[in-house]
Structure formats: C-alpha cells, structure tokens
C-alpha cells in the first residue's frame, strides 16, 4: 500500500480533497438529513462553538510550536505538533459539521454595519483559507506518511508545508475572530 500511495500522492490528494470538501458542502448546504444523525441534548449543541474555539486556539499553539520545532531541526516534535494540529482540526470539523447539520448556520446578532464590513469579510477569508488548506494539508501529510524523513527533503513537503501552515494558522485565527463576534462581542 505504501509504495502505491507514495507514487500517487497528487492523485490521492485530489480524491481526498474532493471527498472532504463534498462532505463539508453537503453538511453546510443542508443536504445531510438531520434524521440520520444521533440526537444530542441542547446543552451539548450549545457548547460546540465554545469547544471549537478552544480547539482552534489550541491549534494555533500547536502550529506555532510545529514551525518552531522544524526550524530547530527537531523533526520528531514537529511531526507530533502537526499531527496534534490535524487531530484538533478533525475534532473541530466533526463537531462543527454535526452542529451545522442539525441546526444550520448561526445568525449574526450584531449591527448591520459590523455584519457587512467586519463579520462577512472575516468569515469569507476564513472559509476561503480553510478550503484552500485542505488539498495542501493532504499533500504534505501524504508526503510525510509515504516517505522516510530523509527523503522528505527531496520533495515539495517543506515548501508546501510552509504555505499550508501559514494559511492554516490564519484560518484558525480568523475562526476565533468569527467566534468572538458571534458569541462574545454580540
């Protein structure tokens, strides 16, 4: 399996990206019937945005640490931080999609001017970066999983990883801003 995946990283990246984004758009678009999902108490659903804000903030820390460790050539700790970030992201996404599938998107409760000139642009950039990150993350992850560390230096892993980490960091940070606008400020 490893040898085949190793030779097909771009193709696997494309397939996984399309499947993942299709699942996200299906959930956000209301295509997933709520009746197919297990029911949860309102208190659990109400807690999801707050839990996700904690997950996002933790991901900001793990991305920053992952970048710091790789700059110090500490590949083992870098890998641990990037895999931790991936786990935080998956947990965030599962909770987010579950809540969206059951309740739909949250309405912005603040003033219209803030909605138009702050909230919507921030949300749009956050969503755009999250979408752009998906194939980049799959690509660097698949490169890392299919090659020994010594061989990664001969691949685009470092170059693409820098871009992916930067965009992922900004996306998580903007997600926290969206959370603050929706649940704290207003």
TrEMBL record:
InterPro entries: Cyt_c_oxidase_su3_a-hlx, DUF420
Keyword line: Membrane, Transmembrane, Transmembrane helix
One Pfam family, short name: DUF420
TM regions (residue ranges): 12-35, 47-67, 79-98, 118-142, 163-185
Protein name: DUF420 domain-containing protein
Record organism: Halobellus litoreus
């Amino acid at each position: 399996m490893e040898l085949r995946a190793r030779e097909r990283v771009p193709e696997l990246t494309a397939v996984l990206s399309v499947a993942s984004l299709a699942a996200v758009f299906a959930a956000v678009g209301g295509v997933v019937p709520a009746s197919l999902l297990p029911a949860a108490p309102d208190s659990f659903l109400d807690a999801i945005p707050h839990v996700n804000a904690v997950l996002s903030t933790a991901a900001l820390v793990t991305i920053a640490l992952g970048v710091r460790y790789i700059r110090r050539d500490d590949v083992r700790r870098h890998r641990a931080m990037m895999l931790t970030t991936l786990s935080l992201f998956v947990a965030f996404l599962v909770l987010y999609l579950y809540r969206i599938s059951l309740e739909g998107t949250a309405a912005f409760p603040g003033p219209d001017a803030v909605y138009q000139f702050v909230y919507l642009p921030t949300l749009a950039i956050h969503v755009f970066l999250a979408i752009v990150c998906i194939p980049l993350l799959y690509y660097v992850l698949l490169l890392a999983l299919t090659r020994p560390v010594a061989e990664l230096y001969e691949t685009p892993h470092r170059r693409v990883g820098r871009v992916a980490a930067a965009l992922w960091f900004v996306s998580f940070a903007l997600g926290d801003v969206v959370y603050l606008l929706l649940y704290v400020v207003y």
